[in-house]
Amino acid sequence: MIAEDFKMQGVNHSHFEPFVNSVFTGMKADIQAEFKLIQVSVRRRINKGLFRENPFTLVFRCARKIILPQGLYQMATTNFDPMDIFVTAVGADAEGIIYHAVFD
Q1: For position 52, what pLDDT does the model report?
Q2: Sign (positive/negative) of CA torsion 10, 26, 63, 100?
Q3: What gap in Å lies between CA 67 and CA 61, rounded to an integer?
Q4: From CA 90, how far away is CA 20, in angstroms rounded?
Q5: pLDDT at 64
Q6: The pTM is what?
Q7: 15 FRET partner, CA 20 to 30 A, in 6, 46, 76, 78?
Q8: HEC secondary structure over the chain
Q9: pLDDT in single tens digits along all 104 residues of the chain
């Protein structure tokens, strides 16, 4: 897991921006769901002690009407190497449940 953590440090918002409006297949244990990436937001760095130089947030929507458990989902889509991303449900709209993935 430590090697994966260091690999994630090189990931920034620009890795995800070309995939806005793409549908990712997210898998966790016996759960498989489709997550549409609807937004990539660069966040302001609160203090210089943060580990990540350029924090950002991904916003996904899942059309399922049930809230999936938060946790690491292996996310994959066309032309994107599968990546474990921690997502948390934060709300809902008419189209589904909204999930955030925060990269601090």
Answers
A1: 59
A2: negative
A3: 11
A4: 19
A5: 87
A6: 0.85
A7: 46
A8: CHHHHHHHHCCCHHHHHHHCCCEEEEEECCEEEEEEEEEEEECCCCCCCCCCCCCEEEEEEECCCCCCCCEEEEEEECCEEEEEEEEEEEEEECCEEEEEEEEC
A9: 433 444 455 788 899 999 999 999 999 999 999 999 999 998 776 666 656 567 899 999 999 888 999 999 999 999 998 999 999 999 999 999 999 999 87
Taking the C-alpha atoms of residue 50 and residue 14, their distance in angstroms, rounded to an integer, is 19
The answer to whether 101 and 89 have CB atoms below 8 angstroms apart is no
Which has the closest alpha carbon to 24: 69, 73, 95, 93?
Answer: 73
What's the one-letter identity of residue 77? Answer: T
